[in-house]
Structures are given as structure tokens and as C-alpha cells.
Backbone:
């Protein structure tokens, strides 16, 4: 029974994409650019607009899948990474949203915001700038 739950949860976030506001100036981002933005190495779109990454909730399966597919790390490793950076005063982790719907709303409302969600259907308020699956 537990195994069935594991198999059912994987497809639930199988099609993750990174979204940005249409006025961010970003048409497409490379994997390296997405990694740099979400790991606090460089927080700027190619257009020069400051990028403000938004994470899913700490308990969401999307967050775990996103970091696993993006950088091959578990959430515990990502949390440890951020703890070191925050302690050293270098940078802050991405803002955290309570849900995928909130990520969508935050990105749609802010030209500098960037987040990740399951591929939206018929959503014109944001644009897909990176496909996590490719």
C-alpha cells in the first residue's frame, strides 16, 4: 500500500516548469541560470531586472522534485546549503510560498519574481522560461 502511494505521487509533479513574469525580459533561461538564481549565486535576469526566486512550501513534493532534478540534491542538503549561506551572511534563501497557487499569484504580480510549478494550462499571466524535465 505504501509503495502504491509513492508511485502515485511521482506523476503528480512530473511536469515541473520554471515561470517568470512576462515583463521580466527573460524569454528562456538555461539550467545554469536557473540554478544560479535559486541557489543565490546570481539573482538577475539577462535583461538586468533583479530576480526574486520563490520556493514552494517546505513540505511540498514539488520542492523536493525540483531540487532533485535541478541539482541532484535532497531537501536536507538544500536546507544545509542555505543554513551555511545565511550563517555566513552571504545571501538569503528564496521566499517561500504556501502553495503552487500562491507561487503563480506572486509571479504574476511581480516582474522580478520567478518560481516553479506544474505546467499550467491556459495561463497567460506568466510565461515558462525553463522546463525542468529537459
Residues:
Amino acid at each position: 500500500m505504501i509503495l502504491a502511494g509513492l508511485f502515485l505521487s511521482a506523476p503528480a509533479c512530473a511536469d515541473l516548469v520554471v515561470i517568470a513574469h512576462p515583463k521580466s525580459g527573460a524569454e528562456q533561461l538555461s539550467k545554469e541560470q536557473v540554478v544560479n538564481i535559486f541557489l543565490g549565486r546570481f539573482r538577475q535576469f539577462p535583461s538586468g531586472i533583479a530576480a526574486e526566486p520563490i520556493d514552494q512550501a517546505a513540505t511540498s513534493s514539488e520542492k523536493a522534485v525540483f531540487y532533485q532534478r535541478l541539482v541532484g540534491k535532497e531537501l536536507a542538503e538544500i536546507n544545509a546549503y542555505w543554513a551555511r549561506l545565511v550563517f555566513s551572511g552571504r545571501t538569503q534563501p528564496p521566499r517561500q510560498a504556501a502553495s503552487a497557487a500562491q507561487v503563480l499569484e506572486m509571479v504574476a504580480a511581480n516582474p522580478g519574481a520567478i518560481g516553479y510549478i506544474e505546467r499550467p494550462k491556459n495561463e497567460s499571466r506568466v510565461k515558462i522560461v525553463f522546463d525542468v524535465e529537459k
Observations:
- The chain has five helices and five strands.
- The beta strands are 16-20, 52-55, 95-96, 113-118, 127-131.
- The first strand starts at residue 16 and ends at 20.
